[in-house]
Amino acid sequence: MLNRERLTRTLIDLIRIDSPTGAEDAIDAHLTRQLAALGADVLHDDYGNLIANLPGASAAAGTPPVLLSAHMDTVEPGRGIKPALDGDTLRSDGTTILGGDCKAGLAIVMEGLAAAIASGLPMRPVQVVFSRAEEGGLNGARNLDFSLLHAAAGIVFDGEGPVSRICVGAPAQNVVQGSITGVAAHAGLEPENGTSALLVAAHVLTRIPLGRIDHETTSNVGVLNGGLKRNIVPESAFIDGEIRSRSQAKLDNYTGEFYRVFDQIGRLFPTASIDVNIRSQYRAYQVPDDHPALAGIAQAVRQIGLHPVFETTGGGSDANVFFEHGIAALPVGIGVRDFHTTRETASISEVLDGARLCQAYVTAS
Ligand SMILES: [Zn+2]
């Protein structure tokens, strides 16, 4: 049986363990102990991702396991978080994030598994993956040792909003980095002998498509820096940006266009050199409405009395990497809102729904 008080305590305990990206050891140790207490066989890959196997009590031999996943790290400011419960809503004191992303996902998996085991119902074999360094590049998942995973489908507990929200499509992301080298010169004595790297960068920025390009494609330059002093024509500039699309073809297209713009501007400024590097950070996925992995999750959502809602997103998650490796694991909501802000909240009743969903999913025949 799921217990609201115990779930609340589990979530608050997890939130109180600081785990900003790169400092996941303490929360990893806590989760490792708790999973072992549930009877799971817990191991870690070389990167430090946590992988736990539960054999499934009465499942037919040879049934592939289902994957349950969430990530252990949080964004900043995420140290010394003081969670406070206000009715059904958990929030921080306003000076930090709450860390509901993704502690609510971790709590959902822990409580859902505990309830499933306690129910005595036959369970499907389960593989749990709690990744590191999801924030800022899915680095844990990208370095995950997939030879340890045998699941074909599963759930990633890492979406915003209610658990009935199933994310059926997410974009691919390419990282765009450009280093521009111009010619330094004294700004007052001989500006005509200089080539401003910042001016070259500015030309690039005005020609590449930026913002919401179409309904499934976006791009952004988040960083532009360069120059040394007010009186020196800037010799170097650096552009750090991204392109995302749920359509791989469009992403390839816009990537080509970015290259063309850099090339054109390079010819406009023959005394400057531009070094462009565009590389894939993760790939897109999109599942059709009749995909079996989606049907399994939707059925569990209905089983707990909710109506499944299929949505697409503009953000990537570990699910993108799972798909790339042939595991159809779809993100669902974890009852958390305003991710990555100090206004972040978690709804205890929705987190409880998440645990019920998890329980229903692993005990479905
Ligand atoms: Zn997250």
Description of the molecule:
This protein is an alpha+beta fold. It has two domains: 4-170 and 285-363, Zn peptidases (Aminopeptidase); 172-282, Alpha-Beta Plaits (2-Layer Sandwich), CATH 3.30.70. It contains nine helices and 17 strands. The strands form three sheets. It has a nine-stranded mixed beta sheet. The chain has a five-stranded antiparallel beta sheet with strand order 10-11-12-9-13. Strands 14-8-15 form a three-stranded mixed beta sheet. Helix 1 (4-16) crosses helix 3 (100-119), helix 3 (100-119) crosses helix 9 (348-363) and helix 5 runs antiparallel to helix 6 (248-268). It starts with a helix and ends with a helix. The mean pLDDT is 96. Residues 71, 101-102, 134, 158 line the site of zinc ion. Zinc ion (ZN) is lined by residues 71, 101-102, 134, 158.
Number of helices: 9
Indicate the mean pLDDT. 96
Fourth-level CATH superfamily of the largest domain: Zn peptidases
Q: Record the strand order, biggest sheet.
A: 1-2-6-3-7-16-17-5-4
The string of secondary-structure elements, in order, is: HHEEEEEHEHEEEHEEEHEEHEHEEH
Tell me about the biggest sheet?
Answer: 9 strands, mixed
**Poorly predicted runs of 5 or more residues:** none
Structural class, judged by helices and strands?
alpha+beta
The N- and C-terminal alpha carbons lie at a distance of 19 Å
Bound molecules: zinc ion
CATH topology of the largest domain: Aminopeptidase
Labels describing this entry:
365 residues, alpha+beta, Aminopeptidase, Alpha-Beta Plaits, 2 domains, 9-stranded mixed β-sheet, 5-stranded antiparallel β-sheet, 9 helices, 17 strands, binds zinc ion
